[in-house]
Write a structure and sequence with these properties.
Largest sheet of chain B: 8 strands, mixed
Strand order of the largest sheet of chain A: 3-4-5-6-7-8-9
CATH superfamily of the largest domain in chain B: 2-enoyl-CoA Hydratase, Chain A, domain 1
Strand content of chain B: 15-25%
Helix content of chain B: 40-55%
CATH class of the largest domain in chain B: Alpha Beta
Oligomer: heterodimer
Number of helices of chain A: 12
Strand content of chain A: 5-15%
Number of domains of chain B: 2
Largest sheet of chain A: 7 strands, mixed
Order of helices and strands of chain B: HHHHEEEHHEHHEHEEHHHEHH
Radius of gyration of chain B: 21 Å
Structural class of chain B: alpha/beta
Radius of gyration of chain A: 21 Å
Distance between the termini of chain B: 44 Å
Largest interface: A-B, 52 and 52 residues
CATH architecture of the largest domain in chain B: Alpha-Beta Complex
Chain lengths: 316, 320
């Protein structure tokens, strides 16, 4: 309109927003807008302390909060060949990959680890939504197969945290083929009578929901997570009507019989321990008996993280 | 009357002219147009050959979706005897987008399951354009279980734009239904043969096509997303369908290189819809061959083969 709206106002806004977030010490809740101190937020597993809104959490941060003493070991995932279709849209696929690796400092969209929860040994896998929307390609397929094979070998349950926009289009049909591939992985667990627990986090959609995320023995979702096959926008375009509030959200799926439970992130660890120990026919967990986070445990975690990040930088 | 695709316009003009000449000659017996009409026919034949000798991926999409292309119903009535449709998922409804039932293939009892798109406006609507709802996948699961119990080979005919993106479908667990159908495909100890006869659209196709052997018709397609969908997401431009179709590698020929399909069934010149009978017979021969091969294997081998096939799929990529 004029120079006040076009120039002056953005400048003023930018000065204020800069003051609001000094060096990322503070994060703003996407839902209620409360400013949250970063330590407070990470202590609460990226759940807003005011409104309980569940923000995204990286697989590494999730595992730090999940495992006893924050200790876990990564399971290597066989690397698939890069860019199998030589895919190119506006950008080349390898360029998109590099950008995602730089942004997340992870190799790919899934992290597989082993560790103990409440002194119960498990294998866990978590999908990273910040890595190209957590999309499922050959690597994610390989990761789930590696996780299942490890679980079978060690006779441990597998707990999988899903988060994805769906299949990775840049791998074309091969991303679609991860639906049967990951289903084979789930079958390996079932044949070995090992518990397979899926925690569906925001968002879990498309081919991911229509394969391993819906084949668990137990389905738990985080509050308000979007879980669907076709996204709300696609459906609105097809049926040309507005969808009701809360459609395809975790609570809605619970009502429609697709989930066993909706559990806040802060209570997940305890619930997973309880469920896994019962499924494994183990006695209840001995509570309050865990050693306090000593220096040794703390530095161990840090050393592991350093080790992991250095191995990644070598690969990149 | 032939329904021409956009890229066939020049062909339509030549064939139209020949037709006009012949119509004139029928009214006026003295006119001698035969030589001229024959020349036009020859020209049309030549053009058809050139057009179809090297179809681009986007043109293949159009041929794969051609309204006159033989559909599941045509295959079932021509290739199978004693077709006895079995309806319903015993849970909610019968999905008309999915045909399925007992039938005999060259005398052998089999279970045949497929997507049917419909042939005219009325049947297209009742078939929901071949887009299955959860009931369709649950019906397929039920039929596959039955086939497994009575040791009948399963033949699936895939032709779907994808699973139906509707409110009710989501409410009733579209994702779970597809996941379970794919799982069932991997669990049955009988030969499972899949032929992609038109469009293999995403999860809706995988749920039927996780098979021991997958054959694709020469101009059929199989993809994780439609070129239209891919263009609007990655190019942010719905017009870039041509580019998206190329990048996705959705043709039978490219997919054979990736090991997704085991064979490509040749179509008559100008696509399946120009000569449905030849197409149907070619598919019959391909199914017979695959069935003969697979019936040599026992349950354990069939299960192990299928599992191994999918575990190693994609390890080499297109470059190899």
């Amino acid at each position: 309109m004029n120079w006040i709206t076009n120039y002056v106002r953005p400048r003023i806004n930018s000065i204020f927003s800069r003051r609001e977030v000094p060096e990322n010490l503070w994060s703003k809740c996407d839902s209620c807008g409360t400013m949250l101190f970063h330590r407070e937020l990470s202590d609460n597993l990226n759940v807003c302390t005011t409104c309980d809104h569940h923000m995204a959490i990286s697989p590494r941060d999730r595992f730090l909060g999940l495992f006893d003493g924050g200790i876990f070991t990564e399971v290597p995932v066989p690397a698939p060949i890069a860019d199998p279709l030589q895919f190119r849209d506006q950008k080349k696929y390898p360029e998109r990959m590099k950008a995602a690796q730089k942004k997340t400092s992870e190799t790919e969209a899934m992290l597989v680890v082993v560790g103990d929860i409440g002194r119960t040994p498990i294998v866990a896998a978590a999908q990273d939504f910040s890595f190209m929307g957590g999309s499922m390609g050959m690597y994610v397929g390989n990761a789930i197969i590696a996780a299942a094979e490890r679980a079978v070998k060690l006779e441990r349950p597998l707990i999988l945290f899903s988060a994805a926009g769906g299949a990775r289009m840049q791998e074309g049909i091969l991303s679609l083929m991860q639906m049967p591939r990951t289903t084979v992985a789930v079958q390996m667990l079932k044949e070995a009578n090992l518990p397979y627990i899926v925690v569906l986090t925001h968002p879990t959609t498309g081919g991911v929901t229509a394969s391993y995320a819906m084949l668990g023995d137990v389905h738990i979702a985080e509050p308000n997570a979007l879980i669907c096959f076709a996204g709300p926008r696609v459906i609105e375009q097809t049926i040309r009507e507005q969808l009701p509030e809360g459609f395809q959200r975790a609570e809605y799926l619970l009502d429609h019989g697709m989930l066993d439970r909706v559990t806040p992130r802060t209570k997940l660890r305890q619930e997973l321990i309880t469920i896994t120990r019962m499924l494994l026919n183990l006695p209840p967990e001995i509570k309050g008996d865990l050693p306090p986070p000593t220096d040794a445990a703390g530095s161990g975690t840090k050393a592991q993280k350093d080790l992991a990040s250095s191995s990644e930088s070598k690969q990149a | 009357m032939t329904n021409y695709l956009n890229f066939e316009k020049p062909l339509a003009e030549i064939e139209g002219k020949a037709e006009e000449l012949r119509a004139l000659a029928r009214q006026n017996a003295e006119m001698d147009i035969e030589a001229e009409a024959k020349a036009l026919d020859a020209k049309a034949a030549e053009l058809l050959k050139t057009l179809y000798s090297d179809l681009t991926p986007w043109r293949k999409c159009q041929v794969a979706r051609h309204q006159d292309r033989p559909h599941c119903k045509d295959y079932i009535s021509r290739l199978f005897d004693d077709y006895t449709p079995l309806a319903g998922d015993r849970n909610f409804a019968d999905d008309h987008a999915v045909m399925g039932g007992l039938a005999r293939f060259s005398g052998t009892p089999v279970m045949v399951i497929g997507h049917e798109k419909g042939a005219d406006t009325k049947s297209r609507i009742s078939r929901n354009f071949g887009m299955a709802r959860p009931e369709g996948y649950r019906k397929a699961i039920r039929l596959m279980d039955m086939a497994d119990k009575f040791n009948l080979p399963v033949i699936t005919l895939v032709d779907t734009p994808g699973a139906y993106p509707g409110k009710g479908a989501e409410e009733r667990g579209q994702s779970e239904a597809i996941a379970r159908s794919t799982e069932k495909c991997l669990q049955i100890g009988v030969p499972l043969i899949s032929v992609i006869i038109g469009e293999g659209g995403s999860g809706g196709a995988v749920a039927f096509a996780t098979a021991n052997r997958v054959a694709m018709l020469e101009h059929s397609i199989y993809s994780v997303i439609s070129p239209e969908g891919c263009a609007s997401i990655l190019w942010k431009d719905a017009e870039k369908t041509r580019e998206a179709a190329e990048a996705l590698r959705l043709t039978a020929q490219d997919l054979a290189k990736l090991g997704v399909n085991d064979q490509v069934i040749k179509e008559p010149l100008g696509g399946a819809h120009r000569d449905p009978n030849t197409t149907l017979e070619a598919v019959r021969a391909a199914i017979a061959e695959m069935l003969a091969e697979l019936s040599q294997k026992n349950r354990k081998q069939l299960l192990a083969d299928r599992r191994k096939k999918y575990l190693k799929m994609g390890m080499t990529g297109l470059a190899a």
